[in-house]
Design a protein that fits this description.
about 20% strand, 5 helices, globular, single chain, alpha/beta, 8-stranded mixed beta sheet
Amino acid sequence: MNQRKWLILTALAMEAKAVLSEFRPGLPEDVNLRVIGIAGRRLDQNAFRGVDGGVILAGLGGALDPELTIGEVVVDAAPDGFWGALPFRQCKIHTSDHLISSIAEKRQLFIDTGCAAADMEGAIVHRLAESTGVPLLHIRAISDTAGEALPERMINWIDDVGEPHFPRIAADMLLYPSQISTMIRLGKNSRVALSSLAGAVRQIVQSRIDS
């Protein structure tokens, strides 16, 4: 087995949990996993210390390209071929400083950037990878399509690692009961995307890291 050290990063605790559930009894001993929070708020600038293999940034993402479907996996990899041939769509992923909630904004970002998907952590992780010279693979599983709007207040329903704030959720459901069906839909979409994400990460670890 390759003895180099590898690192998997996720923004949300549920993403990390999904990835870990794919590995029994656990991750390979030369692979670590860290939760860095929404927008990388918990990312330690020394996070890549000792990592001499590569870093996988894995999470859920919103589609900007209308052709992307729920659960579809996309990757933004360095063009040097380090990660080899991957059986996923390769594209650019846009990093936003806020939740992209409206269909109109998704449409405009797709036109302006040419990116197929969006996240909130990629840019800061890319900068750290470039500064340390560690190869980075950015992978996202689509949890909302380009034609789906998100509740603007959704970001307030969770903490910085995605754990629910139940009092805030309950208050919003009382004020905006129409959001209940939206929450159910989002939950279903997220479960599909998490399953796809975890399977993709396992496939990459087994084919690239364990080779």
